Model the fold of this input.
Amino acid sequence: MGAKCGRAKEPGARGGKLKPVTLHIYDVGTSGSISTLNWMLSPLGTGAFHCGVEVYDWEWSYSDIAGSTSKMVDITGVFCCRPRTCEGHSYYQSVEMGYTAASEVEVLKLICLLEKSWPVVDYDILSHNCCHFSDELCQRLGVGRVPDWVLSLAGIGAALERNTDDITSTQCCRMIAGETQDVVCRQVPSKTCCRVKNQQEDEEESDIHYLV
Done:
């Protein structure tokens, strides 16, 4: 299952060892109700989605993490998982975004920077969510923006929020699904996900240029 983005570049376009970048899209939650809703909304080019970006065999995304964020000022919302296996969501489809010339080391340096600029406390379901993170990561990897329909529902909600005081502030995509008891976008603070940041990474972060 999957859709190919029209912007995708074929291998060899930049003459180096290019690596594919893939956007994985999920229906929010696991109950099936959002899958049905997205099926109904698909003719309108919108839906309620979670998404992550796969590069070098890991899928990267962003969430508010389960629980209160009021005391998590220094905690990042960036996390990773194996491709198409994000816990708490139902895999829907993948979009081939193109190819990046960035090495694996360069990608990890970029992730380190994004971890600092995407803290958990900044999560906003309408204007700063997993889809916006995926959009920025794809652009920094040089493969362009994510499809408009991935971001459209959040954009509509943000526009409504700017014009009314009646919309309740919500956190994380699990709130859309109404599955607050399920594990969604959950990050375990005691684990270091799929990598261990070392001193050399800290010293080399300033070396990133075209990815920033």
Observations:
- The chain is about 30% helix and 20% strand.
- The longest helix spans residues 148-162.
- Confidence is low (pLDDT under 50) at residues 1-15, 157-161, 164-172, 174-198.
- Helices lie at 33-41, 104-117, 130-140, 148-162, 174-177, 199-204.
